[in-house]
Amino acid sequence: MIASELTAEVVLEGSRRDGESRSSGDHAAALRFITCGSVDDGKSTLIGRLLVDSKAVLQDQLAGVQRSGQTDLALLTDGLSAEREQGITIDVAYRYFATPARKFIIGDAPGHEQYTRNMVTAASGADAAVVLVDATKLQWGNPGLELLPQTRRHALLANLLRVPSIVFAINKLDAVEDPTVAFNNIRGALARFAASAGITVRATLPISALKGHNVVQPHPGWCRYEGPSLLQLLEQLDVAAADHDAPAAVPVQWVEKFSSSADTSQGRRIFWGRVAAGSVQPGQTVTVLPGGRSAVVAQVLDHVRRPRAVGAGHSAGIVLDREVDVSRGDWLLAPGAAQPSRQLSATVAWLDDQPLVAGRVYWALHGHRWVKARVQRIVHRLDINTLAEAPAGELEPNAIGHVELALQEPLAVRPYEQSRVLGSLVLVDTASHRTAGAALVRDA
Predict the structure, then answer these.
(1) pLDDT, position 305
(2) Is 300 helix (H, G, I), strand (E, B) or coil?
């Protein structure tokens, strides 16, 4: 299992070699984006339109997604048999395509509330989120219209997960009587919601995933919109900024032992993992967590075993100057990388079917390290309709709230707003081993 995980990392590394920097201001690297929103807003159809109009679908694939003589674009992403039978998206479907300008990795997130956990998984590593809004489901003629709860929830989650670029795409405007009025009223409602929630919106644009308006090619003048198409906008977005300027932090995923080594100037094991923050290079002093022992980095290998410094977001093999007890799940930390703590304040997106209550104990996964975590207190629950923070005795499934956690062993964490990797944990039920929640560190 460990070897297969490492292989997956190496494959991802190979796909990113041309976009090695993956930092703010870089719009040449592959863009990872998700489509999200409420049920039946047209997410799968939108991705199908992007694939077809960008010539990323072969003729035999198109022939396989016919229904009653018509091409059903949603079937290009709904791959599970249950999805095709029910006409819904259940799991996250990933698709890859490229234009002359850049490469894309798309995640089609399900819209049903019960599959919110799948949307969180997809958003956690995304560079952008396209939140679809179905104009036909809203009172589009009312300037003070209310948005759907799942539209609000997905936008809030994307913002909480620090997705750098959030785009609102108002879909199905071709199916309303007055597209211009509908676009203006819905855009106003989205702007009010984003302002009250503190969400920075990259753009709001009108589209028709079914007919293709403003998806790949611009449709000038439609809804009095003169901006770029969705694809043109995506081609210009930056990828997520890696923590290159922070002190180095590496979660150890795999320990490899040299078959033989006569070199006594360094240890005989390579510690492999994806650099979470900073840059790792020979001569650095690192401390092992847990344990607290320190050593000096003697050698650093990249994903194809070339000796070189490796930055955040890329896999590295680290050889220390002496033998130190390091295992899978441990962290290698440069001075100042993170402050080990056993008390955490965190924002939690609760994903389990059973409510979260104070006193429960869960497994907390941080990097590749597992520790027991006890829920000391539920501070408040966020009302997604009013955005008010209300006292709560429990968090129901798919709720978002603020909790305090007590850890059995210290973890090296930083606030999530500073580091997406060091500031995130996954809570897992100790009995069923099901993913229960996504925790984003506020402070430690």
Answers:
(1) 92
(2) strand
pLDDT of residue 263: 63
What residues contact 440, with CB distance under 8 A and at least 6 apart?
Answer: 160, 161, 346, 347, 348, 349, 416, 423, 424
Instruction: Estimate to the nearest angstrom the gap between the alpha carbon of 403 and the chain centroid.
Output: 21
Looking at residue 190, its pLDDT comes to 96
pLDDT < 70 regions, the chain = 1-28, 55-93, 110-117, 241-242, 259-265, 385, 444
- How far from 390 is each of 187, 213, 380, 401, CA to CA, in Å? 28, 42, 5, 9
- If you ran DSSP here, which 8-state letter would residue 140 be given? T
Whether residue 218 is preceded by a cis peptide bond, meaning omega within 30 degrees of 0, is no
pLDDT of residue 345: 95
**Residue 309 CA: distances (Å) to CA of 87, 281, 282, 298, 324:** 48, 5, 7, 11, 21
Single pTM value for the model: 0.74
169 phi and psi, to 5 degrees? -120, 115
